[in-house]
Specification:
Elements (H helix, E strand, L loop, with lengths): L2 E4 L2 H8 L5 H13 L2 E4 H9 L1 H7 L26 E2 L5 E7 L11 H4 L7 H12 L6 E6 L6 H12 L6 E6 L1 H4 L6 H12 L3 E7 L8 H12 L3 E8 L7 H13 L3 E7 L13 H14 L7 E3 L10 E5 L3 E9 H7 L10 E3 L4 E7 L3
Parallel strand pairs: 4-5, 5-6, 6-7, 7-8, 8-9, 9-10
Antiparallel strand pairs: 1-2, 3-4, 11-12, 12-14, 13-14
Helix pairs in contact: 3-4, 6-7, 7-9, 11-12
Bound molecules: iron/sulfur cluster.
């Protein structure tokens, strides 16, 4: 699909007929120099129709005044081979492409950097690594968006299909919004072949607002259900976009009705310039609790702050002005088993009395 990169206020106004003062145009030029906009045709059209979608992909003047709190907690130290991230004993992620057809403004890659794809040889090495580690049972193919390069995705899925100890292959993607037509016959042939090898296939669908589920996306969700592919939601909590239980419930009802499952609601990562899109951490807890009061447990997500479910598997130990200290469920003993030479990364990680990892999370309580 045709993609547009927007690097100046003028280009933005050409596409979206915006009306900005000279001062605002200067501010937008500054913002776009730091982080340009990439949109495909479909997201441009949807952004023109829905403010809820435009606000996720177009720059806001507030990005210039927001201090941001970017600090990559849990910076990965777990790459046994290129493209593989192993933070747990029984699961790994593999990232064939660190790029997307459209960029979400709040994505960590806008700061960590969108990057190159894995070569075919690197994919082969990654699959070999998984094959030679029988503790690994679940693989998440993520990125970026793995659907950006169907050939590489197929290479990984077909490689993993023949690895006996793999139970499920998950694909983390936002293509149900960006370009649902990519879930085509070719995609379902790939799925069928993996299923024929006894693999369970799941789609972790990044979706944030009910406006994202138009007729085309809904049809694909239903098709996935018919092909025994489990689609589960991965939603980022975004201030002014979906930070109320009614909006989330509408999204979850649409997904559930089409055969999908409600799974994760993430507190928005601390990304420089994105304070205006971040809620407090406690706001997410309040929304989750309101949802539990309003609907079935099947439609109530797990609310994750970094990788922690506060009050379920993790506890808040201390609250600062712009940060909180969280005791995670991860034991240092286990981390040492998985990560060679592991030790907590001072000053943002510590060890609790009961031997668990404590992290400093940058965000307001
Ligand atoms: S789809 Fe995911 S990886 Fe791609 S830009 Fe959005 S948040 Fe980042």
């Amino acid at each position: 699909m045709k993609v547009r990169i927007i690097r100046t206020a003028k280009e933005l106004m050409d596409v979206f007929d915006g009306n900005y003062s000279k001062e605002e145009r200067d501010t937008l030029d500054y913002i776009l120099k730091i982080s340009s906009v990439k949109l495909n045709e479909r997201v441009i059209e949807l952004s023109k129709k829905h403010e809820s979608i435009a606000a996720q992909f177009l720059p806001s003047l507030q990005e210039a005044s927001s201090m941001g709190l970017f600090h990559k907690i849990y910076k990965s130290r777990t790459h046994p081979v290129k493209g593989i991230d192993r933070g747990y004993l029984d699961r790994v992620t593999i990232t064939p492409v660190m790029n997307c057809e459209t960029f979400c403004r709040y994505c960590f890659l806008t700061q960590a950097g969108f990057g190159a794809s894995m070569s075919d040889k690197e994919i082969e090495d990654a699959v070999d690594y998984i094959d030679s580690n029988p503790d690994i049972r679940y693989v998440l193919i993520t990125g970026g968006d793995p659907l950006l390069n169907q050939a590489k995705l197929e290479r990984i899925v077909s490689g993993l299909s023949t690895v006996n100890h793999i139970d499920s292959i998950r694909i983390g993607t936002r293509t149900l919004l960006f370009d649902p037509s990519k879930f085509n016959d070719r995609f379902f042939r790939m799925i069928k072949s993996a299923q024929n090898h006894g693999k369970r296939i799941e789609i972790g669908a990044h979706m944030n607002h009910p406006d994202e589920i138009d007729a085309e996306t809904q049809e694909k969700l239903e098709e996935m259900h018919r092909h025994l592919v489990t689609v589960y939601t991965q939603t980022t909590l975004l201030r002014g976009i979906n930070d109320d239980p009614e909006t989330l419930l509408e999204l979850y009802r649409k997904v559930y009705r089409a055969g999908g499952e409600v799974y994760l609601l993430f507190h928005c990562d601390p990304i420089n310039g994105m304070d205006h899109l971040r809620t407090t951490v406690s706001k997410g807890l309040e929304i989750k609790s309101r949802l539990a009061d309003m609907t079935s447990g099947r439609l109530v997500p797990k609310y994750k702050v970094a990788k922690c479910e506060i009050g379920v598997d993790s506890d808040v130990l201390e609250i600062g002005e712009n940060h909180i200290w969280i005791e995670t469920p991860y034991s240092i003993a286990n981390l040492k088993k998985i990560i060679e030479g592991y030790s907590p990364l001072e000053p943002v990680e510590k060890v609790s009395k009961r031997g668990r990892l404590i992290i400093k999370y940058m965000g307001k309580w």
